[in-house]
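Purpose: get a first structural picture of the assembly so the mutagenesis plan has something to point at.
Setup: two entries, given in the order below. No constraints added.
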Amino acid sequence: MTSEHLGDVIAASTVLISAGSGGVGKTTTAAAIALAGARSGRRVVVVTIDPARRLADALGLGPGGLTDEPQLIDGPWPGELWAAMLDTQATFDALVTRHATPEQADRILANGFYRNMVSSLSGTQEYMATEKLHQLHGDPRFDLVVVDTPPTRNALDVIEAPHTLSRFLDHRLYRMLVTPSRRMGRAVGVATAAFVRTVSKVAGGAVVDDAIEFFRAFEGLEDGFRQRAVEVAALFREETTAFVLVTSPRRDTLEEAAWFAAQLRQRDMVVRGLVVNRVQPRPIDGPADRFRTMSAQHRGTDLAFLCDTLVEQCVAADHERSQLDATVAEVAAVSVTLVPILGTDVHDIGGLEQIARHLVGRA
Amino acid sequence: MDPARFFAASRLVIVAGKGGVGKTTVSATLARAAARVGRASLVVEVEGKNGLAAAFDRPDLGYDPSEMWSRGDPPGAAVVSARALTADDALLEYLADHGLDRVSRRLVRSGALEVVATAAPGIEDILLLGKVKQIERAEPDRLVVLDTPASGHAITFLRSGRSLIDSVKVGPIQTQAADVLEMLTDPARTRVLLVTIPEETPINELIETAYKLEDEVGVALGPIVVNGVVPDAPHTDLSPAEAAAAVGVDLSNDDADALVAAATFRRERAELQREQLARLDAALPLPQLHLPAAVATEIGRSEVDRLATALLRGLESLPDTVVTAGESPS
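Result (structure tokens, whole complex):
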């Protein structure tokens, strides 16, 4: 299997998106990639989403330092490393303010339905992550933007993210709420009216009034948002934008990665990197037969115990590799990187550097 | 304690934890273990991605329950069933119960729930939990195991009842939310089992979640399930050269180094795990049930059965006083 190094992918990219299932070390991988970029002399900003406390501390994003605005992290590398944490609401509010007139923006920002949408509409966090990406990509302070993505229930949320709002605004129910019903099919008008009546009965009238008020306030703004979505979607397809899928050897996370890679391919996007974290190390390179024989010959002794320990790890590593190889072939990433199980969580930049070395190291 | 007594202590067991810790495997394991000591069980997956189906070697699960393990396999065992719920299905059922016609159904199918859920957050969760409540009431002799959605959303999910009671003052949803809350806070009906792996970040999150669930939702917490525990590693500080000499074997340097590397890896993992488990024990006064690390990277029926054996053994070694109906563990 010939494969480029992740270091080459990082060097050739201006945007890097780290995606994958929850619990596979996606955020840490994004941070380590950013650090690797800074070590190679680039000016990198990493946008993290809900980092574990110790990683946040390592990035200078601990309590008090936790901010939406990129912070420069001092360190002995030739480039620059900046880190920010995604604030979905602040990013969304800024977007509304930019597109709307001041009065319109006030009406939208104060609306209860809008507030709910920002905090609970599925895909909003992914949407704002890509917005932040677009914004920082145009910022002359940085030449590489690394974005972590939320632990999503559906990986598609990430690629569909730029269209989250337009898809929502295109919904028939929305059309019905803002358009007089005579312009729609009569049967549909009657049915939606009945549906809205039921919703008010079930959840209270204020809920429906808020929604109608929101959609009215938003009128005329869709085009701007739609245009923006087209731009962000185009950024995904650029030659210098790299999707890096992060996974673990567990079957469910591998399946998720393979499925996501297929979805990207269908949309003409390339998987530039596949990072498999938590790989079981193999203590020897060749076959373990001689240790198996030694254990059998000296059953019950200390030597047999030591041999069994080694054989067990070889068996586990081989089994894992055979599973991995199938997925690796399926994902067909430009670069494939295996990171062994590490003893501890990242506590500081030193820990992050250790991972960065694994990611770009030429073994 | 007697595992049968443990599984009889409540009618609903909610399995919660951070993504990637093996909640679905633990849910399947609990259901199988309960059935093996004679209590019929039903695993409910919400908004799932077929992870539960895979644990039972099935391609997928439907909205209606289907049998995963038959009664009498092995003799004395009760049946294990499973089903997958979605908020859309639950809403359709809800609308049907409230006499809505077919065109409205089409609206639901077109994703209207997304708009409604945005107007009243938590409504999807309450629809799902309402359905779970109905299932729990339908057959009191059966244990319902609920595999909660991933992505740290367990607290929001379980708090939805309380939040909706505050925001929606009247109407059927309010009644639904009150019923759900009553079920969740009654320890004779519901217990929450938190799942983690013996690692730092998942344990930190579990500790935080445990306190939030007790304070903000008022649920009773059962033992903590620690998944993926590697066996303790005694004798891994042995010197390969000495061990070899003792039986008259001449080891090459490379082989001796490889043996040291393997033993060291195992010892370090075991040490790290011990540290983390001790930390969890000090932070939370809840008993721990340890499940061994899987031999395979894929979980299927045979793996679930093996884990169920380990779980039953773990339950037997818990003190009798640990979890009984109506008693809050804290």
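Confidence is low (pLDDT under 50) at residues 324-330 of chain B.
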